[in-house]
Structures are given as C-alpha cells and as structure tokens.
C-alpha cells in the first residue's frame, strides 16, 4: 500500500428511508450541490443518484435512493430494488426518518437495515416540528428498533446539525484511494439532470396521478458556443394525460418549460434553448422493454 492509500479516505455513503422524510434535501446539503430534485411529493427520486465530495485526502460518494414503498407496478419494483441494493454496498448507511412517521412503517425494510454490515447513522429529520420531550421518546423507540445505530436528530430544512452528520461520516470512512476522478461531482451525465429538472417542475405544476405517469427523455443535447440546444419528450400513459400536460393552447407545457429552462440555465451556467414535446406510451410503467430503455433496473 502506497503512502497516498494509507492517508486517503474514500467510501460510499448511502441515504435511504421512506418517501418524504427529507433524504434529497439532506443529500444536497451534504454534497453542497443541487444534485437531487426536491419536492413535497412522494416518489420524487426514481434512481440512485451519486453526489461526490472531494478534498485532497478524502472522497465521499453520497448515494440518494428512492423512498421505500410497497410496489404497485414494475417501475416501483425497480425503485424498491434501488433502495434495497443501497443496504449491501455502503461503507456508511444513513437511514433517514422524521418526527412524523411511525417507527413500524415498512417493518420488512427496517429489519433489513438491522442486518446491515456497515455503520448505520439513524437520522431523525424535521425536529423543528416536535417538542424536546417527544423527540427524546421517539429516539428511545428507535433505539429499540435499531440498537446498533447511532441516532442524530437534524432539521435539514433549517440546516441544523448537518455538520455533525458530516463529521461522523468522515470519522467512519475507511482508508482507501478515490473511486472516481477527483474533479467529479456525480456519476450522472448532463442529460440526466435535464430530465430531473423537468420532472421536478411536472411534479410541482400538475396534480393527482399525472406527474407519476410521466417520464422525460432527452432526444438532443447540443452544446453550441453561446448556448445549449436541448430537445426533450415527456412520456405519458394516456391521451387524457397528454392533454393535461399540454394544457389549453399549450399554456401548461409552456409554463413548465419556462420554469425548467430557468433552472437549467442556473445549473449549467449557460443559455438554454429548450424544446419539449409530449408522447403517449400506454402503460409504460409496467413494460419491461421501455423501463430498461429508460435506465431502470428490473432484476
């Protein structure tokens, strides 16, 4: 082992938990970049997304995972597979809960967390919404469920105690050379963040089932001297959903496109020319070939 390998720390820090407990908000604070989309709606994250933090003597590879859920269709089965796989390849596991959900939610998954071979940090988020005595009682319940875990209460929204989480992660990282190039921020290509930004705006703008029945595909991503030209297709399952996405005289789609374009210009630091179209692929969330084409793992 070289001198660099003896003094350099690297590791995978996987963030998992139920939907809407603040996993993506926590990850974005830890990474320092807006890697994961954040909305108040469940099933926002569909893939494992890596955010990489580098210093001269350390590399932390954070992994945000989909919220744990009971799958109702094949897309959700793929999302659950992502969450469960995060239990097996972590150097440090962050299991995120909050002050609202019960400790017995998704009992099967909690039992799998109990069997994790790596250090587990149990993050109780949203402590700004609970009294101290109630928080202490909740923490005691979790000690009974995950006795080997270290409990850290935080408020990701208020950025409270995030630094303590970061310090414990650094202390727990194994000695290792870096896994990625030292200038890497994520393992995802630029096209992926285009789809995530558009999907976030769809989640925020539309109601009911429509956002969950959509997928975004980038068909063209051309970097020109003064701008980036992007052409995307929003996939839906039914003609009625297509009509809702487009809206009266195209106003809904135009609004979503404007919001997405502004965020893309901030993200890429370039002017964006964005084209958006809508296409129907019936029952795509249950079709293996389409799910695989969209990058979802089904095994």
Question: Features of this protein?
Answer:
299 residues; globular; three-stranded mixed sheet; 36% helix; alpha/beta; six-stranded mixed sheet; 10 helices
Summary, kept brief:
With 299 residues, this protein is of the alpha/beta class. 36% of the residues lie in helices and 23% in strands.
Would you kindly provide a written description of the structure presented here, covering whatever features stand out?
The protein is α/β, with parallel strands linked by helices and 299 residues long. It has 10 helices and 9 strands. The protein is 36% helix and 23% strand. The strands form 2 sheets. Strands 2-3-1-4-5-6 form a 6-stranded mixed beta sheet, sandwiched between helices. A 3-stranded mixed beta sheet has the order 7-8-9.
The number of helical segments is 10
- The share of residues in extended strands comes to 15-25%
Derived structural class:
alpha/beta
Please report the distance between the alpha carbons of the first and last residues: 36 Å
SSE succession: HEHEEHEHEHEHHEEHHEH
Largest sheet report: 6 strands, mixed
Count the beta strands.
9
Task: Output the strand order for the largest sheet.
Answer: 2-3-1-4-5-6
Instruction: Please state the CA-atom Rg, rounded to the nearest Å.
Output: 20 Å
Mean pLDDT, as a whole number? 84
Low-confidence stretches: 38-44
Helical proportion, percent range: 25-40%
Q: What does the overall shape look like? A: globular
